[in-house]
Amino acid sequence: MLKLISPLLLFFAPACLARFSPFVPFDSWLRRWSKLIAHPDQRCLNVDGECLYWPTSRCAGGWEEKHNGIRTLPFCHGGGHRRCCFPCDTQCMANEQLWSREDIACNNARGRCQNTTNFCNGIYATGMCGGPFDRQCCDPKISPGGICPLVTYEPTDHLIAVGDEEMRVHPDFVPAMNVINKAAGDCGVKVLVGFTFRKPRKSKSDVMRSFVYKYYSNYFVGHAVGIFLNTTRGFCPHWCSYNGYWPDTKCFSDSLIAAGLNRETNFYLDVHDGFNRNVTAWKKLSREIRDVC
Questions:
Q1: DSSP β-bridge partners for residue 83
Q2: Does residue 83 sit in the same domain as residue 111?
Q3: Cα–Cα distance between 74 and 77 in angstroms, integer?
Q4: CATH number of the domain that 239 lies in?
Q5: Which domain does 245 fall in, by range?
Q6: What dihedral do alpha carbons 197, 203, 209, 210 form, nearest 10°?
Q7: Would you indicate the residue range of the signal peptide (predicted)?
Q8: 3-state DSSP call for residue 117?
Q9: 262 and 156 in one domain?
Q10: How do residues 59-92 score in pLDDT, each as one tens digit?
């Protein structure tokens, strides 16, 4: 019995003392003890950091980095693209202001000087920024073989990526993504995106495995997205989403049809804009992005 009571005394005694003692403010005690309560982002919170979506956010204090390409102990929950932005204190901000005076070469190239742990849709160039070596110029015009035209669609309250999936689509498909997002909000469902841009596979077995890897697939040019739905009744797989089994999923499906989007069932509900109907345009775009994205 004593063994059971002792841990409870150790936990609650500080609270009682703090609550009634004029020397230990209760809110100060609460802040200290709240750090011991499990939280999905606790490791990031412990260093006063903030968990943000890495590909679309800029962090002056630097991001958590991978070790040998793998983040064995991630600071944030929610997939590999949600990372911990370390805080930029007063000294950090003063350094940034001082270093930025020597960013002329990068600014003239329309690049951005930043810590190399930040995402760069291009490549980092040295010798163009002030500050330490790991503060370099992200030049979007420089990339091996050309510029990748794909953009990252940022998650919303109604549309999120599953796991480490990054929602990379062609700019011309962004309006379709907006339609999907709006339909989800209007119909009261949440869209879970598991598949966007993919490169063609070399193996015939991979190519023939599914719609995703068929010839002239819109996934190859960033004009398709593979989704599931989460509803008030629970998870809704591809066949449920396609057929509109429930009123909210039927509302969602009808909204996509009304907007002129195409739907096909595979492992996901594949939504695309029919870009591959123009084979000549598809081949041209495929050649443009094949080696740079």
A1: 52
A2: no
A3: 7
A4: 3.30.1380
A5: 151-290
A6: 20
A7: 1-18
A8: coil
A9: yes
A10: 888 887 654 444 546 678 766 677 888 888 889 9
Same domain, 200 and 272: yes
As given in the structure block, the two tokens for residue 171 are 């700019």
Domain count, the chain: 3
Q: Which helix (DSSP H) or strand (DSSP E) does residue 194 occupy? A: strand 190-195
- Buried b vs exposed e over 251-279: b needs ≥16 C-beta within 10 Å? bbbebbeeeebbebebebbbbbbebbeee
**Domain membership flag for residue 7:** no
**Same-domain status, 270 and 192:** yes
CB 267 within 8 A of CB 239: no
Residues 6+ apart with CB under 8 A from 132: none
* 106: in domain: yes
| The residue to which tokens 């999120």 are assigned | 160
pLDDT digits (tens, 9 = 90+) for 161-199: 887 668 889 888 999 999 999 999 999 999 999 888 887
- What lies within 8 Å, CB to CB, of 126 at 6+ separation is 133, 136, 137
Same domain for 167 and 80: no
pTM over cut 0.70: no
Please indicate, yes or no, whether residues 80 and 112 belong to a single structural domain of this protein: no
pLDDT confidence tier of residue 214, bands split at 50, 70 and 90: low
| Residue 79 three-state SS | coil
